[in-house]
Amino acid sequence: MDENPTNFGWFFRLEEDGIYPTISVIEGVDREEVIQILAGEDAERERMSVKEAIDEVTRDVDVIGLGEDSGLVFTIEAISSTLAVPGVLREISQNGRCVSATFSSEGVCSFHYAVRGELVAYEFDAGYPVWPLIARDDRWDVTWSEATAEFDENEIVQGVHLLSLIGQVMGIAPQASWFKRQLWTIKIPCSVQFEGSPAWNIP
């Protein structure tokens, strides 16, 4: 783990490598179970860094790296957003929780949180504060979002507060070291396959 998990200066350098990631942290399943959910039992996997994975992404293929930290599973997609699809979040969180955030090249950042197969929060353009889909949902602690009030307007526009929010929700925030590791990496059909399907239903 990085020495200072609240310092997100590294995030601003991702764009230099063409990385506009979707990052998730998952509780309640192990890495192999996540792989099976996303790609099936016979999924092929390779070890590569997030930067190396960019070259493997095609129009029809998304590439997802998986790692573990502090007893939780995390995933990183260099330039895709499978872990932002509501149906995927619902399935992966069946036995626990899943939180994810997407940082697009167009400057729109989204935040997503599911608990035991149900969406709790989903914001396409997530500013400050982030709210649950249902007011006063007891699965959402308002202090999580309040704790990100320290970020300035520019940081919020770029979505840096969402890295901190992930940490508030799951107890561990995304780290620079995750992007340097050789992650177990899988290839799956591009997330556009879900367009127009019930997987995109949001209550």
Radius of gyration computed on alpha carbons:
16 Å
Strand and helix order: EHEHEEHEEEHHHHE
Largest sheet: 8 strands, antiparallel
* Coarse structural class: alpha+beta
How much helicity do the residues have? Answer: 10-25%
Q: Please mark out the parts with pLDDT under 50 across 5 or more consecutive residues, or reply none.
A: none
Q: Strand-residue fraction?
A: 25-35%
For this structure, the quaternary state is: single chain
Q: In one word, what is the shape?
A: globular
Order of neighbouring strands in the sheet with most strands: 2-8-3-4-1-5-6-7
How do the helices and strands line up, and which of them pair or pack?
Layout: E1 22-27, H1 31-39, E2 46-48, H2 50-53, E3 61-69, E4 72-77, H3 86-92, E5 97-103, E6 109-115, E7 118-123, H4 142-146, H5 153-158, H6 160-170, H7 176-180, E8 183-189
Antiparallel strand pairs: 1-4, 1-5, 2-8, 3-4, 3-8, 5-6, 6-7
If you had to describe this structure to a student in words, what would you say it looks like?
With 203 residues, the protein is of the alpha+beta class. It is built from seven helices and eight strands. The protein has an eight-stranded antiparallel beta sheet, sandwiched between helices. The N and C termini lie far apart (36 Å). The model has no long low-confidence stretch (mean pLDDT 92).
